[in-house]
Amino acid sequence: MTKDISIERILKELYQISGFRISIYDTFFHEIAAYPQNLGCLCSLVQQTPEGKKHCINHDIMAFDKVRKQERLHIYKCYYGLYEAVAPLYNFETLTGYLMMGQTLESGEETRSLVFERSLPYVKDPEVLHDTIDRIPVRDQNTINSLVTIMEICAQYITLTNRMHLTQKELISEVHDYIQKQYDRHITIDDLCAQFFCSRSSLTRKFKETYGISIHDYISKVRLENSCHLLRSTSLSIGEIAFRCGYNDQNYFTRAFCKAMNMTPREYRKSF
Length: 272
Hints:
Number of strands: 6
């Protein structure tokens, strides 16, 4: 793995190898990143009832608590009989979150029967439940152990590279400040994910919730505000101002400026 790999990339690669959903939780047991975004098929089905969801949450919290106390990876079976694994994530020896992998069935008809029996009270249609169980990845014990070992290595990598060093609130504030200072550079959301070691979905959602504007729109807003300042206070050419504000194409800058200000950069300058 390279130094600039993002959290989302790590989760995606783990998923590609294992076929299991990979997620990261903070120490308050809130999911902050996952790949894929949707829950596994059985989880989605049983969590349609409050009692079914409660069993899922309680078993996850018990697993997280055991990892916190033992300070090492924990492999377990959830309430419904599926294998899951949780590994601790640290920042300078302080627990900052959990890496979770799941869910999979151990090969064998007896295992399927157990899952069916445990899940049936929370599912209305037995046929739907049978079809759902058939879609759950099945692995033998040796394969499960190997995949969990890879997961543990990734957890250690996240820890050693301090990927979990910011709370969500701190992260969004850091991204906000970064854009204000680096608006003259080429910035994409993927660049920000790599820079701050976070998932794309979590970053875009929390930024919009915090500031009421998308990251893309905020980058444009900062660039236009600075271009207005330069147009008012300097005699720099339009092309130079465009370049200094992160636009590689003067024509694109002019179009963006016109759309936001209802006048060209030249007309804006003349008005002052």
